[in-house]
Amino acid sequence: MSVSLECKKVKRTGFLPAFLGGGILAAAVPVINMAVRSEMYLDLPGNSIQILLDANWQMMTMLNVLLVVAGACLLYHTEYADNAMQKMKSLPIRESSIFLGKAVLTICMSLFVLAIEAGAVAFCTYHWFEIGNGFFSELCKYFGFSFLLMLPCVILSLLISEACKNMWVSLGIGVVCVFTATMLPTTNFALSLFPFAMPFQVFASTDVTQSMHYIDSAIAELAVLCLAQLAFVKARRLLE
Predict the structure, then answer these.
(1) Which of 2, 17, 122, 156 would give a disulfide with 195, using CB separation of 3.0 to 4.6 Å?
(2) What are 149-182's pLDDT values in tens digits?
């Protein structure tokens, strides 16, 4: 019910066009890169997915995370505009269910964006490399891993937007977090666990243990962030 309600709300915003346009833009990155500089990658060792993601994933991820931040700000801006959130509190609706509906919607749109990008990687492989046996199962592993690592970023972005009534404040915090994540060394495991930095990691088929550490950390961060959201709602009720 809350998800369908959120879908009706976003029709009046640029949420859906932003994710659609951003997904197409991110998917165009590997295509344009290969069209311009294909000779740099064709002779590299390794499978085509690894080569393409190593070359393009940083830019693609930055666009993905910026989309999540902007989308979260838009979703909560509609709630705080004209005191809509105050009116919602008078209805028999829990704030946590509102948050859950927005989270499900943002997660679905993030999955949609990743699906477009996976299609772009498949196209590049077909056009410049060779699609071998087991290609699509490998593609699902890589992008499934990326999807899971994006979830803590989605929840934290929504939590920041829920806490800040001014959309520009939450947007500014989100952008600062994104650019901070880009400056963190990806080789440092502890620093790379920052929710905005985790999506920049690429699944390493040669080091499954390291990838499993990231998966476990993402699940743990999701649990902590969900508990933080419940605690925040209760604390705000006591202070109001």
Answers:
(1) 156
(2) 999 999 999 999 988 888 899 999 999 999 999 8
